[in-house]
Automatic annotation (TrEMBL):
The protein's name: Urease accessory protein UreE
GN (gene name): ureE
Source organism of this protein record: Sphingomonas oligophenolica
Taxonomic lineage of the native organism: Bacteria, Pseudomonadati, Pseudomonadota, Alphaproteobacteria, Sphingomonadales
Signal peptide: none
Function as written in the Swiss-Prot or TrEMBL entry: Involved in urease metallocenter assembly. Binds nickel. Probably functions as a nickel donor during metallocenter assembly.
Localisation per UniProt entry: Cytoplasm
Family, as annotated: Belongs to the UreE family.
Domain UreE urease accessory N-terminal: 4-66
Source domain of life: Bacteria
Region annotated Disordered, chain positions: 144-166
Amino acid sequence: MRRIIAVEHPFPTETPADSLLLDFDHRNRRRLVLTTQAGESLLLDMPRAVHMRGGDVARLDDGSAIAIEAADEALLEIMAMDGAALVRIAWHLGNRHLPTQFVAGDGGGRIRIRKDHVIRAMVEGLGGRCTDIAAPFDPEGGAYAGAGLHDHSHDHGTPGHHHAHH
């Protein structure tokens, strides 16, 4: 089995031999067997977790390149009536440690999260508008994320504030 030995940003000018279509979780790993679009198994075996984005290239141990493509996922795209309302919603999402993607665009920003009916109800209760979309998901890594994974520990300073970090 060929091995992925590096991930290169941005996409080089060479034509990749194949591609990997991966969701967010599979683009953030240290060790995993991945299957290319043509059906070949490749071993991702890195010293630390890597964050691969659509447009990157996986460099194999034989020098060949495999394109990384970000798969569409079921997401909620969140908008609000103004910037202050969107910031308030972002604070509530962050307080729940949800992977969150911020998208700038015409007419203001948007937030993308994984589709979740409970969070949708919370966002709508805060005045946000949610739209179901299918798109690549590339959330912020966070201040403590290091190699792009949401994996950290810290003290929120509140007695009884305990939760798992993923």
